[in-house]
Amino acid sequence: MNDAQHPPQAGRYIGQRVERKEDARLLTGRGVYVDDVSLPGMLHVAFVRSPIARGRIRSLDASPALALPGVYAVYTAQDLARFKIDMLSFFLAAPAVQITPLASGRVAYVGDPVALVIAQNRYIAEDAAGLVQVDYEEETPVVGIDAAREGALVHPDSDSNIAVAMGEEHDEAIEALLAQAPHVVSTTVHHQRVAQSPIETRGVVVAKHGEGELTVYLACQSPQMAARYIAQAFGLPPTGIRVISKDVGGSFGLKVQPWREEIAVIAAGLIFGRPLKWIEDRLENLTASNQARDQQMRIRAAFDNEGRMLAAHSDYDLDNGAYPHGADCNIAVSMFLWAAYKMPQFNFYTKGWFTNTVGLAAYRGPWAMESLARETLLDIAARQIGIDPIEIRRRNLVYKADQPRTTPFGIPLEDITPAECLELLLQKFDVAAFRAEQAQARKQGRYLGLGFAAYIEPTAGSAGISVLASDVAQIRIEPTGKVSAVLSTHSQGHGTQTTMAQVIAETLGVPLADVSVHEDDSSRGGFGAGASGSRQAVAGGGASIKAAELLRDKLRRVAAHLLETDAQRVRIENGRILVDGEPEKSRSLREIAEVAYGEPERLPEGMEAGLEAQYRYRPPPLTLSSAAHLCVVDVSADTGFVKILRWISSEDCGVMINPAVVEGQIAGGLAQAIGTVLLEHVSFDARGNPTAVTYKDYMLPAISDVPDFEYHHLCTPSQSVGGFRGVGEGGCIVGPPTLVNAIADALSPFGAIPLDLPLTPSKLLEVIEGRSMAPRPAESAPVPVPSAPVPSAAPAPVLEAPPVIATQTRIDGIWKLVLATPIGPQKFNGNFVTDGDKVSGTLDSDMGSQAFSGVVEGNRLRWDLKVTKPVSVTLKYDVLIEGDKLSGKVKMGIFGNAKLTGERG
Amino acid sequence: MKPAAFDYYAPSSIEEACRLLSEAGGGATVLAGGQTLMPLLALRMSQPFIVVDITRIAALKTVTRGDGCTRIGPTLRQNELIAHAEIGRALPSLVTAARHVGHHQTRNRGTVGGSIALGEPAAELPATALALGASVELRSLRGTRRVPLQDFYFGPYATALEPDELLVGIEFPDWPAGTSWLFREIAQRPGDFALVGFSGAVTVQDGRISRAGLAWFGMGPTPIRARQAEAALLNQNPEQIDAQAIAQLAIADTAPFDDHHASAEYRRTVGRRLCAKLLSETLPARQAA
């Protein structure tokens, strides 16, 4: 259902659902991604990564790797130290703690890059990476925010695990208001860690040309930004660095800046001289690419008896991992928490924590927690106060009539429309009919739920952050009469080659087919931050309109001069020059362009040759988009499964350039929202090992999980040139609370649902059954088995079964055991007790203790141990004891054999 | 995610394949459809010295009917199984199970034997074959042996298959007329391994249940036969079956575990419901009061 209202500016192209110019190329496999780039003499890189979450590197021996044929070099932090590289934040600021591209002395998370191997091909590079011998002194890692509060320092040179903190934990004035309010609603929301999961993982090809020049092919969100970042990180002149990024298969915030691996490969390319390629594999992407969210928020909000907001306090914590893309306490969460609502007074406390996990990165709507926390709280408040969830929003949202106003955070509101979006939504859905259906369904044991959420979203911010201040468009009418534009926008699949061409074609008056847009090469065009902060329609669109206007005006002046008429009477339509009232003077663009380039003496006196224009546009400080969504779910009381029956979006992103692209952005964000609420979860065990390392366990929403969305558009023009507003992140922000609220509504007969994402069937069935179904700790005690299969090790030797030697041997007692697993040695203690031909005891490690029992034949012991985590496997131990030494093998099901050695403890 | 080096062989006869496995002394892995093996190789979780690709052995692909059984060659692709009219008539729940294995694209590659031989406890085909009373024929240079599936699975990915043995056929006994077929699973997304699943067949002759084969998947370290439930059904009048009680017995044989996706208690609770519902929908069973 699409009922786009045509905004006043809707024209021949702007506002039209034109087909994307890039689709034929992309859909037929003609895209050029980093892995499509192959250069003569190119070698391949693989990383040696830490198998432990925290510890000191005692020693590193690369000689076995270097001895492998086809291996050219192994570099460590020491080799790269000559560049004095700072891993800058997205804002090009120095990091809060020192971050080197490769681990220097210490490792801080599982997957931390310790060394890189340069080899003939990726196969050999991975073989060699497994041969690099690293000896670690393992320390107890800090995993999770609670551990960060009390555990060891993640960065031993810092004075606390707090990366950044802002606000006030305690505010007397707020506390006083909360104390006397008729209703205080208090919630705590836990948002799991998620992985951005772009289809194209990170990747880089670097080629050094002589001493002063470097070409970098990079999966990134802006080649301009990346070139500037690389120049600044290496202290090199930006003029010599060319970043090419033709097509990108999604980023969602992950590729907003080059990170440790890409920078390490570039450094290696500078040292080694030959072109190098590194393509992140999916295992690396799910374990060693920076991740997102992983946060919790406690809110206390006071309401009067009519459900009007009085005061609130929020306390927010964000896991930064070890090396975030810029230490962050996510101030935007607090800034936008109440921005669209009439909350008279609030305060906040917000902290970012360092932990021994892979670092934090942006993810579509990085501050989205504000909507999740607030909109779920509003539903709880509505239930608690006894008013309708729609009504509580109507009483508190900022309507158009309430503006202009300024939020307590100082954000000026002039034209936000979340309330109007909600009203539009309510025109499209019969709530009363649904409530009747819901009541009827409940009698039959079906649990339907309806959820709402409303929000505003900051887009195209241009104030306070220098890299986001402006974007540039350079447009030429070529001598052929065709138009080419070089922009500082960049497509990650956004369709900017189409939308920007629509804007230019509309403004210039030329056919869309005649406009081509280029944004793939930092050596063409000027600086801009590319695809970030939902800014391209606003900043890039505005720059395109202004540049096209300049060019149009020049064209009219040139045409008027050549055709001996007045510029006021010259129009450009469909690529032709028309003169009012004088049809015989119609000319093609090409005819005018040939003169402008080839016969500049025929131009007006003093006019520059050619038909070219450039405009650097700074959009308003902040352009706000608004939306309200609803969805209907059916939650099975038998299984806790959630089926989404209907989802309606009502949004206001100002003037739409291409409604199909707008709806694509909303749909993509909503798909991610559904994944966040129901499926996706980056989790770690107590040792900091990631436990969802492939797409079997890291569950993305599939086509079957994502319904057809219905879209309704309000189109309130913004203050920006063109009237556009950003729409890139909204679905991912408003989607989660919409769905959570619907599930909570469905299950309200059973009680409150836990605000702890993802809402798995297990968690929901607990609500339905009213009893705990949580895993029993004893059953899930971790044991030493390969957990994070970081590719590294050489094959475990296949051992022959040890011969049985019938001598009397002392077996009982404590043994120190080492299991050689594919991810490196795992140490634990064995406590053996024999009783005739039986042996029993426990295997103990930091991760827990597990009992076993088996058989003794002479000095040979055999026992089986069933393990369910991180994978289900039966470990078959078969060991031989000779004196104070123990040796043998452990058969690990499909994972092969591992060698076990030990000595009496 | 590139496999460690291995030698690749694509023998054209069973004998040659067995010789390769024998000579490798445990260092070889059999490649059929590769839907499990290739990711494990790429992740280097499996690092065999030799990979023996058996998909070029014509004799391993055949389907024969007769002597009271259906014999399926191990390299029959899952989608070929689904499209096979005779198997569809003889073993409907096996075909239903195959439809739930992975996705259309993976079923074009994945084989019946590959799934049976791997022994993933949450997979559809091993449990269904177990329920239907199938046995596997294992061949090596040492000879041939037949192992009923109930003696084949030891633990997750642990089977009776010796390193030098090749699975050369899966034999399903015929089920008589009057058989009802059961299959249902709960998976987070279509194509995922089941959180819990139940499969099998029940035969009613002369108003009495004469035969029952039932098994769970995703409910323990192996596919698990619901022996107590099978025994309780035998000789009963299907119209007087208490589906809830049978489901309770069926659950009693399981040993589910907690993992990233669901808790053991979730599996038991949902499994019991799924089983009761499936029985009462399939058999004219009496609903518990």
Helix and strand topology:
The complex is a heterodimer of chains A (905) and B (289).
Chain A: H1 23-27, E1 43-49, E2 55-61, H2 63-66, E3 71-76, H3 77-80, E4 106-107, E5 113-119, H4 122-131, E6 133-138, H5 145-150, E7 162-167, H6 172-180, E8 183-194, E9 203-209, E10 213-218, H7 223-234, E11 241-244, H8 260-272, E12 276-279, H9 282-287, E13 292-303, E14 309-321, H10 331-337, E15 346-354, H11 369-385, H12 389-396, E16 405-406, E17 412-413, H13 418-427, H14 431-443, E18 447-459, E19 471-477, E20 483-487, H15 496-508, E21 515-518, H16 536-562, E22 570-573, E23 576-579, E24 587-588, H17 589-598, E25 612-617, E26 623-635, E27 642-652, H18 659-678, E28 710-714, H19 730-746, H20 761-769, E29 813-821, E30 824-835, E31 838-845, E32 848-857, E33 860-867, E34 873-882, E35 885-892, E36 897-904
Parallel strand pairs in A: 1-12, 10-11, 14-15, 20-21, 27-28
Antiparallel strand pairs in A: 1-5, 2-4, 2-6, 3-5, 7-15, 8-13, 9-10, 9-12, 13-14, 16-17, 18-26, 19-20, 19-25, 22-23, 23-24, 26-27, 29-30, 29-36, 30-31, 31-32, 32-33, 33-34, 34-35, 35-36
Helix pairs in contact in A: 10-11, 11-12, 11-19, 15-16, 18-19
Chain B: E1 7-9, H1 14-24, E2 28-31, H2 37-42, E3 50-53, E4 63-66, E5 69-72, H3 78-83, H4 85-90, H5 92-99, H6 104-109, H7 112-118, H8 124-131, E6 135-140, E7 143-148, E8 153-155, E9 158-159, E10 166-173, E11 179-186, E12 196-205, E13 208-217, E14 224-225, H9 227-233, H10 243-252, H11 264-282
